[in-house]
């Protein structure tokens, strides 16, 4: 008689994506093995959507993609699959942008740098993204009258 032991473990993985829905009612989900897991956001975290999803560790590498959802119905999804590289969380990924981390070539230095040395707090493989919410009327006024000081 043979005894087979199958070891399965499930670990929560936090998925995060930066996305701007095409309609006010739309949301985002992460699709793993053709199953949708809804992502949430709030007034304070928009446009960052996230969720902790239980992921099985027995089936090898986990492929996933982000999908825009309208009232619970899957709509536009990314046309490519992503591969989970961390057992705990994804980076802040951009919806429908395949490259998250890239090795950027260094520029040749043509003059002596007088600034302090580069900080280890800055990762040269990532580009910072800043999202600002403003009063639309004030922005329109500033763009129409750029030299006015208020």
In words, what does this structure look like?
The protein is mainly beta and 150 residues long. It has a domain at 10-94: Immunoglobulin-like, CATH 2.60.40.10. 6% of the residues lie in helices and 33% in strands. The protein has 1 helix and 8 strands; from the N terminus they run E-E-E-E-E-E-E-E-H. It has one helix at 136-144, and strands spanning 10-18, 26-32, 35-38, 48-56, 63-70, 73-77, 82-83, 89-94. The strands form 2 sheets. Strands 2, 3, 5, 6 and 7 form a 5-stranded antiparallel beta sheet that branches. Strands 4-1-8 form a 3-stranded mixed beta sheet, with no helix packed on it. The longest helix is centred in the C-terminal third of the chain and has 9 residues, at 136-144. The N and C termini lie far apart (85 Å). 10% of the residues are buried. The model has no long low-confidence stretch (mean pLDDT 85).
Summarize this entry quickly.
The chain has 1 helix and 8 strands; from the N terminus they run E-E-E-E-E-E-E-E-H. With 150 residues, it is mainly β.
Weakly predicted, low-confidence segments: none
What is the CA-CA span between the terminal residues?
Answer: 85 Å
Shape, per Cα inertia axes: flat
Based on the coordinates given, report the CATH architecture of the domain at 10-94.
Answer: Sandwich
At CATH level 3, the topology of the domain at 10-94 is Immunoglobulin-like
**What is the CATH class of the domain at 10-94?**
Mainly Beta
Major sheet: 5 strands, antiparallel
Q: Structural class of the helix and strand makeup?
A: mainly beta
């Amino acid at each position: 008689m043979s005894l087979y032991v199958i070891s399965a473990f499930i670990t929560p993985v936090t998925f995060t994506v930066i996305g701007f829905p095409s309609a006010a009612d739309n949301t985002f989900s992460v699709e793993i093995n053709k199953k949708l897991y809804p992502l949430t956001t709030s007034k304070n975290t928009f446009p960052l959507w996230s969720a902790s999803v239980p992921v099985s560790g027995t089936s090898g590498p986990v492929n996933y993609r982000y999908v825009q959802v309208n009232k619970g119905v899957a709509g536009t999804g990314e046309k490519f699959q992503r591969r989970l590289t961390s057992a705990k969380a994804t980076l802040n990924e951009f919806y429908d942008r395949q490259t998250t981390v890239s090795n950027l070539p260094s520029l040749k230095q043509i003059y002596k740098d007088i600034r302090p040395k580069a900080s280890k707090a800055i990762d040269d493989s990532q580009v910072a993204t800043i999202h600002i919410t403003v009063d639309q009327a004030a922005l329109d006024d500033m763009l129409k009258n750029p030299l006015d000081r208020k």
